[in-house]
Write a structure and sequence with these properties.
Blueprint (H helix, E strand, L loop, with lengths): L8 H24 L3 H28 L3 H32 L9 H4 L5 E6 L11 H4 L1 H5 L2 E7 L2 E4 L12 E6 L4 H7 L19 H28 L2 H28 L10 H20 L1 H4 L6 H9 L3 E6 L11 H4 L1 H5 L2 E7 L2 E4 L12 E6 L1 H11 L4 E3 L3
Antiparallel strand pairs: 1-4, 2-3, 2-4, 5-8, 5-9, 6-7, 6-8
Helix pairs in contact: 1-2, 1-3, 1-8, 1-12, 2-3, 3-10, 8-9, 8-10, 8-12, 9-10
């Protein structure tokens, strides 16, 4: 929908949903890499999302021609309110950079080495990528990087497809391993990023635990948002329960990080540096709260307006629930061995094994027969995932 403005509730909901997932990734990346440009992209995206949501509310009210219509549309407005909370919280995270609250420099070297990072690059004049399609560039195969969105001026193209052509001046928003970042920057004609700061040793106590908490907060918030949208798409209470579990976990992480900041303050060279951590903790918890709000109707067995599921079905990404079949290619192999993201374009949000869930499993996670896998990605990727997981792998289709 980059070339034309969304016109109805469904189209506006699609745009707001895509923006809300991207904005969380970009906000954390801005903080982890102390990147003003990424923080600026968050602000642009939040303003865009606010515009979508304002128009969505107006359109929804105009569409209600009876008390019954108005009551049915309340679920749409409920979801819109949750999306808005996600955007506001992501903006709060980005403001940690914009108002120079920062986080302790000693944390940054470890934060830079999260499994995947998000970033941005502007395509320069006569760059190798100019005039080429994403299919030609083969970014996932050549660099390990996935393109989340392309911004052209004030227009956004979320989850661009293989036929999207890269143009001079495009801003590419991407996600992938750190070693792939300079490869995509080279294609965009941008200079390589300088190496990260060296860590001369922790000036604060329990530094490793603080890094663990920050990374887990990021993963928890991203997983909660992804599972919340899957809950709406599949209309399944068990997924709503998992969002609730993640929200409870975020409360614990919030408390832990606050406690760490209070203990570290006397040893900090600049106690003001720690204020950014408190902002991160609060905003991350808000994102998880909003994700749980989004699942409220499903959790209580209430009817959602059909337009919500229609919007999720037509978004550029699809959610898939698959079960690993005995003897399939995936049975007994790790996510890294399978190269799921490269081979299928699907990102694994969660894996259920028996009664236990693993959220955003790491590349070394080994799949077993009977594992229930919740993932998101392009529609053709879901079909490829079924092939890897074995005949009959699809356990539940979207309504």
């Amino acid at each position: 929908m980059a070339d034309e403005e969304p016109r109805n509730v469904k189209e506006l909901l699609i745009e707001a949903k895509d923006a809300s997932e991207l904005i969380v990734d970009l906000a954390y990346a801005a903080v982890f890499f102390n990147d003003d440009d990424l923080a600026g992209e968050v602000e642009k995206l939040e303003q865009r999302m606010d515009s979508y949501l304002q128009r969505l509310r107006t359109t929804a009210m105009l569409a209600a021609r009876s008390p019954e219509d108005a009551e049915a549309m309340t679920g749409v407005l409920w979801v819109a309110s949750a999306i808005e909370k996600i955007g506001d919280a992501a903006s709060d995270i980005a403001r940690v950079i914009q108002v120079k609250l920062g986080i302790p420099d000693a944390l940054r070297p470890d934060l830079r080495h999260a499994d995947e990072i998000a970033g941005r690059v502007k395509v320069r004049e006569e760059a190798p990528a100019v005039g080429r399609t994403l299919r030609d560039l083969s970014l996932p195969t050549e660099t390990g990087i996935w393109l989340l969105a392309i911004r052209r001026g004030t227009d956004w193209e979320f989850d661009p497809d293989a036929d999207s052509v890269v143009s001079e001046g495009d801003v590419l928003l991407f996600q992938g391993p750190e070693e792939g970042v300079n490869l995509i920057r080279e294609l965009a004609g941008a200079p390589p990023l300088p190496p990260g700061p060296e860590n001369d040793g922790p000036p604060l106590s329990e530094l490793d635990r603080a890094v663990d908490i920050l990374v887990e907060m990021k993963n928890t918030a991203e997983a909660a948002v992804g599972l919340a949208y899957s809950t709406l798409l599949f209309n399944e209470r068990s997924l709503a329960a998992e969002v609730s579990t993640l929200e409870s976990r975020s409360d614990i992480l919030h408390d832990e990080l606050e406690s760490w900041v209070l203990r570290a303050a006397p040893e900090a060279r600049d106690p003001d540096e720690l204020r950014g951590l408190l902002r991160l903790a609060s905003a991350s918890e808000t994102i998880c709260d909003a994700a749980r709000d989004m699942t409220w109707y499903v959790e209580r067995g209430e009817e959602l307006h059909p337009v919500v599921q229609m919007a999720l079905e037509e978004t550029e990404e699809t959610a898939a629930e698959t079960v690993v079949q005995p003897g399939s290619q995936a049975d007994g192999r790790s996510l890294k061995d399978l190269q799921l993201e490269t081979e299928t374009g699907m990102f694994v949000l969660a894996v259920q094994r028996g009664r236990r869930w693993t959220y955003q499993p790491r590349p070394r996670f080994v799949l077993e027969a009977g594992d229930r896998v919740i993932s998101i990605g392009p529609e053709e990727g879901a079909e490829e995932l079924e092939r890897l997981f074995g005949e009959g792998a699809r356990a539940l289709d979207a309504p």
